[in-house]
Write a structure and sequence with these properties.
single chain, about 200 residues, mainly alpha, about 80% helix, disordered N terminus
Length: about 200
C-alpha cells in the first residue's frame, strides 16, 4: 500500500467522525465501512460505527463494533466505556461492570467510566460500591451533574435523605434542563420534607 493509499482510510475516518457530529447515520456507515474495507486493522472506524449504531438503536450492532475495536486496540479506554454503556442498556450489568472496570484500569481519571460503574453497581444492588464510584466521579469532574444525581439517588436508598437532597440540588444547579434530575430532585425533596 502506497503512502497516499494509507491516507485514504484516515480521511474516510475523518469524514465518518464528522458525520457523527451531525448525526447522519447513513453518511457515518458509508464512510466508515469504506475505511474499514481499505484498512480493516484500524480500530477507530469500528469504534465510530459503534457510536452511530447505538445512537440509532442498534445495540447488538454497536456491541459487535466496540468488541472489534477493542480486539484491534485493547488499550482504547473509550471503546471499553462505550461497550459497557451498551451492555448496561441491554441489562447485562455484570458485563457492563467488567468493561467499566477495564476502562478505569486503562484510564483511572475517566470520570464517565466511574459514573457508569456507579450506575451498574447501583442496578446490581451494591449501594456502597455505587456511592464510592459516584464520589470518585465527582472528585474527578465536580460539574458532572449525573454523578451528583446518582449519588443522591443512592444516598436516598441508604436512608440519608438530607445528603441525597444536597446532591440532587447540586445536580439541578449544574443541569437545570435534565428531566431525570428534575424528577429525582422533586421526589427526594418531597420525601425529605416528610421525614
Amino acid at each position: 500500500m502506497s503512502e497516499n493509499d494509507k491516507q485514504v482510510p484516515s480521511a474516510l475516518v475523518a469524514v465518518g467522525t464528522k458525520a457523527l457530529t451531525v448525526r447522519s447515520a447513513t453518511l457515518v456507515k458509508r464512510g466508515l465501512a469504506l475505511a474499514k474495507s481499505l484498512q480493516p486493522d484500524l480500530a477507530l472506524p469500528h469504534y465510530n460505527l459503534g457510536i452511530a449504531l447505538k445512537d440509532n438503536g442498534d445495540l447488538d450492532g454497536a456491541i459487535a463494533e466496540y468488541r472489534i475495536a477493542i480486539r484491534l486496540q485493547p488499550g482504547m479506554a473509550a471503546a471499553h466505556h462505550n461497550l459497557a454503556v451498551a451492555l448496561h442498556d441491554k441489562g447485562d450489568w455484570d458485563g457492563a461492570t467488567a468493561e467499566y472496570r477495564t476502562a478505569i484500569h486503562l484510564r483511572p481519571d475517566y470520570a464517565l467510566a466511574h459514573l457508569g460503574l456507579g450506575n451498574a453497581l447501583n442496578d446490581k444492588g451494591d449501594l456502597d460500591g455505587a456511592i464510592a464510584e459516584y464520589r470518585t466521579a465527582i472528585r474527578l469532574a465536580p460539574d458532572l451533574a449525573l454523578a451528583h444525581c446518582g449519588l443522591g439517588n443512592a444516598l436516598e436508598m441508604k436512608g440519608d435523605r438530607l445528603g441525597a437532597l444536597g446532591e440532587v440540588e447540586k445536580a439541578r444547579e449544574l443541569d437545570p434542563n435534565d428531566s431525570s434530575i428534575a424528577e429525582a430532585y422533586e421526589r427526594i425533596r418531597r420525601k425529605a420534607g416528610n421525614g
